[in-house]
Design a protein that fits this description.
single chain; alpha/beta; two-stranded antiparallel ribbon
């Protein structure tokens, strides 16, 4: 068996491990939170609104969404992942919300699994995000591979996920991040779709966001700390005691999601901004938007629902939409724009 086949098998096995561990093990951050609990909305007992008139639609990267929701990047590359992605895509299409897929590196290494990511046939009108690890640009990936994953998905944008901590702990992780910013800049100038920079649960600081935007990145997904800890996920896959300890030591490493949103928005008032990292319900979504995000991404809740059935995913989407709408109604805001500018979100001292 040649080396590339070995690599693709390892990547595929890792994808299966990630799904199993996230569904079966406790891999949530223990001590650090997403920071959203430090805020609360001022309740309006007289909203002067008809609930039926509330509009939570928005646009992101030029595409209309019926709700400010992103089914965050999760999976692909296995039979179970294909089923999960199909269920997610069908619900995304029905509710006109955005969707990202998991890292498509496995589809580059093993083209026969590309169809597990190819959800455009289930979601013809949805804002879809392709996905590759940014560090792969230092491991012989370039424009051709990025174009390939965009084409597989017929994607509207490419997420480059940035995950130094995960790579440190992951068995045989890719840890050469030297010179990556220049390569991201070159890619942004040549790729025909926008590039979104995303962390995987440890957050993006304002200083790094500024560098990424200067390099040509079109949008930021903060993916802050407070939700799934990929250090803990990788510690569950550890091949030796050192990796296992690293995962546990750094289980709560990172910048809380709320902090990422506010600090990035302060230095980049107009950048398309996605809030993700530990969001679990529509109140979290509304809080993140009031803090300055444009849309909000959830992964774990959608993964858990998709592992059950398409109906469970649809029910989750319904609940999230109802929760967001309730926040607007009970703060006297008819639109997301009004919510952002209402001053109804207060920090709890």
């Amino acid at each position: 068996m040649n080396a590339p086949t070995n690599i693709s098998a390892q990547t595929q096995n890792r994808k299966a491990d990630h799904i199993r561990i996230c569904l079966e093990e406790d891999v949530q951050c223990d001590r650090i939170t997403n920071g959203l609990e430090r805020y609360r909305f001022t309740h309006s007992c007289l909203p002067e609104l008809n609930h039926d008139d509330i509009d939570i639609s928005t646009t992101f990267l030029g595409k209309n969404l019926d709700a400010p929701l992103l089914i965050s990047s999760m999976t692909g590359g296995t039979e179970q992942a294909a089923m999960i992605n199909q269920r997610l895509a069908q619900v995304a299409q029905h509710y006109k919300i955005a969707m990202g897929v998991g890292s498509q590196r496995v589809a580059v290494e093993k083209p026969q699994v590309a169809d597990t990511f190819a959800v455009r046939k289930y979601a013809p009108d949805v804002l879809l995000f392709a996905n590759l690890g940014a560090v792969q640009l230092n491991y012989k990936y370039g424009l051709d591979e990025c174009l390939r994953v965009v084409d597989i998905l017929e994607a509207d944008a490419l997420i480059l996920h940035i995950n130094p901590l995960q790579e440190c702990i992951q068995p045989k992780g890719d840890t050469n991040f030297r010179g990556l910013l220049d390569k991201i800049s070159i890619l942004c100038s040549k790729l025909p779709v926008p590039v979104i920079a995303k962390e995987v649960g440890n957050g993006i600081s304002a200083a790094i966001a500024q560098k990424l935007l200067a390099a040509g990145v079109a949008a930021i997904d903060v993916a802050g700390a407070g939700g799934t800890s990929w250090a803990k996920v990788e510690s569950e896959r550890a091949e030796n005691p050192l990796q296992r300890r690293l995962g546990r030591t750094f289980a709560d490493w990172g910048l809380p999601t709320a902090e990422c949103i506010t600090t990035i928005r302060a230095i980049a008032p107009n950048v398309p901004l996605i809030a993700s990292g530990g969001l679990r319900h529509g109140l979290d979504v509304a809080t993140a938007i009031a803090l300055g995000a444009d849309i909000a991404g959830l992964a774990m809740p959608f993964l858990q629902a998709a592992a059950i059935s398409e109906t469970a995913v649809a029910e989750l989407a319904e609940v999230l939409i109802a929760e967001i709408t309730t926040v607007l109604f009970c703060t006297g805001n008819a639109t997301l724009y009004q919510l952002k500018h209402s001053g109804s979100l207060q920090r709890i001292e």
